[in-house]
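Retro notes (design track)

What went well: tokenization of the new backbones is finally stable.
What didn't: we kept losing track of which sequence belonged to which structure.
Fix going forward: every design gets posted as structure first, then sequence, in one message. First example under the new rule, 671 residues:
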């Protein structure tokens, strides 16, 4: 497929999406291009946020508190379904409108203008207001279904310690990313025939039963030429693709090539590569690589792409540039897809990689994917089922499967069977499950941080993925998505993600994890009673997360504290109507749900293991020094009495006990 054909297919895909999902063309173009950007790993989970006023516009945003990075997206739409050029003026105007949105949001000028016109835009403005003092990067993305000139992209700038970066994703760049995923041919490099050169190398004998290892030095001219031929197909196994020539690390690479080419080898870490096989020659006990089959760069994409970019300058001389290369030849009986991600993970030292990229082949995720391709969504009319949920086990999988469709009819059939709005990823799943496990404080720490904690939880407490487990996980997914819609309609003005997670955690807590998830799966929605219950809970939870224990604490940081959750569970909620939503044990033929989470069980065990003498001593010490409240001192004494009778503390007692112990140690108490 060439670029022209791809642009036509892309336009048809957009029309199909608008028809099936009842959305508008601009939002669908935005969503589709963002899917390709997500596929590179360069963004986390952007949200559509269509807002436009005179001189300002935004179509989507992505905020990653882990890296203090805010991404803003604006879309330039070219009508029609042919390959069309976008003028430089249109691209420049888009950057200006996006930049003005950020500046007015940060200054507080937009807060009143946005309130009634866009709920998601209001939340974005709130995020910018709260995060503006901690932001390190603000990245402006212009997206377009037309063909644009990269020369018009502004230079990156730094203002008040914030780096402002500019990116352009036109249909050409989208096609490039598509090509990477569309099953390109294996890359085979014949150094003797193509470059009249052999790579002198050191062969490391018997390093492993899985790989053969080589260390070599490759001339910069050859590496740049190879990249010029294969572009990012050479980086297909790389976790992250090229982050544009304007990224800070790439500017440094370019500078050293132009100014000190003879020192490039000393300054640069080199590249890590893999291959299926190599051909070698021996001469005077020296090993030379003459050919590499199925060559991939798994770390060093920034070095390689920057080297090629710089070589395009006619004044560049690469004759003195050499790069260290590590080559791991994967043996035939070893699954390459299981080995390469870890080579990339441990070799990477230049750009961050997402941990969620490295667990795709874990049995848990493989089984979740298997069930998602098998289990049809129950039909509301009792007729034939037509669609399924799509679990994206590996990043970009949904796009991959779309790209394999040969016709518009096949594509439409695929999108009916797997609607875009029923796609969910590994980080989504972690968010839903950790909320249900009553850990909204971990969910509030961001997608990747929460995912790492989720993976840790799976290792400590392995889960058997069965048909029932899968269906109930989908029920949790529906619960999360429906609550998200409810909170969005309330126009609370920010912290929607925190609100949703805390709401689910509270429902899980108040029902002892016995909410009737089977009903949600069978009906693919919540009961009217549950909708109403959720509606009544929102004001109390909203007031709670907006009232940190420490005055002046940032709301987002407060939501990350376990104290935020513990203090919420101590509040009174009328849950009489919630009893109607609880699945009776008699009806539940599957494994019983544990009363407490593993974390809660550990908390009870830890506090109950504290000796009675410690509790009594703590109470006496606190009284003598006038520390803590009389209630807390009395509680410590009572806990000692409970433990002295060989009884365990209740969950509520354990939470308070842990708080008292922590506070006492901070004040100087020693056991």
């Amino acid at each position: 497929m060439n670029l022209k054909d791809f642009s036509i297919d892309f336009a048809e895909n957009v029309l199909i999406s608008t028809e099936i999902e009842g959305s508008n063309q601009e939002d669908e173009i935005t969503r589709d291009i963002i899917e390709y950007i997500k596929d590179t790993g360069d963004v986390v989970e952007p949200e559509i946020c269509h807002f436009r006023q005179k001189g300002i516009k935004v179509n989507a945003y992505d905020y990653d508190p882990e890296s203090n990075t805010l991404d803003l997206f604006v879309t330039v739409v070219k009508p029609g379904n042919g390959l069309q050029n976008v003028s430089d003026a249109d691209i420049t105007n888009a950057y200006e409108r996006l930049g003005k949105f950020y500046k007015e949001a940060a200054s507080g000028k937009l807060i009143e203008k946005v309130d009634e016109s866009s709920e998601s835009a209001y939340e974005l403005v709130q995020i910018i207001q709260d995060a503006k003092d901690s932001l390190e990067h603000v990245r402006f993305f212009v997206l377009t279904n037309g063909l644009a000139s990269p020369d018009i992209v502004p230079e990156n700038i730094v203002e008040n310690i914030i780096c402002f970066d500019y990116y352009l994703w036109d249909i050409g760049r989208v096609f490039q990313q598509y090509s990477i995923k569309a099953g390109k041919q294996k890359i085979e490099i014949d150094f003797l025939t193509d470059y009249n050169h052999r790579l002198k190398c050191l062969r490391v004998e018997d390093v492993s039963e899985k790989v053969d290892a080589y260390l070599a030095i490759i001339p910069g001219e050859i590496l740049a030429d190879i990249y010029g031929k294969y572009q990012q197909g050479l980086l297909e196994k790389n976790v992250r693709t090229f982050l544009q020539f304007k990224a800070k690390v790439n500017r440094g690479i370019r500078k050293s090539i132009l100014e000190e080419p003879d020192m490039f080898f000393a300054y640069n870490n080199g590249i890590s590569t893999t291959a299926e096989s190599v051909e070698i020659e021996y001469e005077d006990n020296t090993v030379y690589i003459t050919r590499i089959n199925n060559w991939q760069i798994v770390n060093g994409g920034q070095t390689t792409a920057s080297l090629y970019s710089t070589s395009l300058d006619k004044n560049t001389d690469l004759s003195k540039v050499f790069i260290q290369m590590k080559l791991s030849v994967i043996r035939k009986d070893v699954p390459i897809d299981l080995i390469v991600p870890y080579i990339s993970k441990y070799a990477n030292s230049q750009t961050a990689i997402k941990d969620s990229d490295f667990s795709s082949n874990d049995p848990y995720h493989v089984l979740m994917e298997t069930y998602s391709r098998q289990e049809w969504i129950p039909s509301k009319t009792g007729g034939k089922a037509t669609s399924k949920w799509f679990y994206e086990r590996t990043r970009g999988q949904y796009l991959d499967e779309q790209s394999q469709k040969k016709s518009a009819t096949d594509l439409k059939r695929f999108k009916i069977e797997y609607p875009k709005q029923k796609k969910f990823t590994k980080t989504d799943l972690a968010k839903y499950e950790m909320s249900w496990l009553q850990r909204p404080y971990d969910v509030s720490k961001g997608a990747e941080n929460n995912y790492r904690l989720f993976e840790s939880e799976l290792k400590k407490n392995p889960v058997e993925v069965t048909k029932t487990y899968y269906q109930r996980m989908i029920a949790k997914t529906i619960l999360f998505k429906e609550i998200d819609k409810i909170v969005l309609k309330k126009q609370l003005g920010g912290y929607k993600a925190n609100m949703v997670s805390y709401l689910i955690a509270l429902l899980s807590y108040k029902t002892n994890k016995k909410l009737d998830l089977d009903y949600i799966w069978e009906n693919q929605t919540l009961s009217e009673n549950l909708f109403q219950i959720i509606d009544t809970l929102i004001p109390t939870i909203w007031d709670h997360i907006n009232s940190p224990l420490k005055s002046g604490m940032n709301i987002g940081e407060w939501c990350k504290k376990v104290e935020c959750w513990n203090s919420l569970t101590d509040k009174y909620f009328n849950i009489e109507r919630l009893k109607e939503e609880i699945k009776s044990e008699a009806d539940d033929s599957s494994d019983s749900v544990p009363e407490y989470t593993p974390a809660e069980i550990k908390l009870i065990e830890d506090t109950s293991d504290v000796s009675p003498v410690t509790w009594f001593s703590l109470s006496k010490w606190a009284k003598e020094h006038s520390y803590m409240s009389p209630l807390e001192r009395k509680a410590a004494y009572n806990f000692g009495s409970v433990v002295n009778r060989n009884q365990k503390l209740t969950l509520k007692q354990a939470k308070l006990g842990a708080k008292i112990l922590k506070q006492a140690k901070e004040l100087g108490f020693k056991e």
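Added context from the reviewer: Confidence is low (pLDDT under 50) at residues 238-249, 349-353, 589-594.
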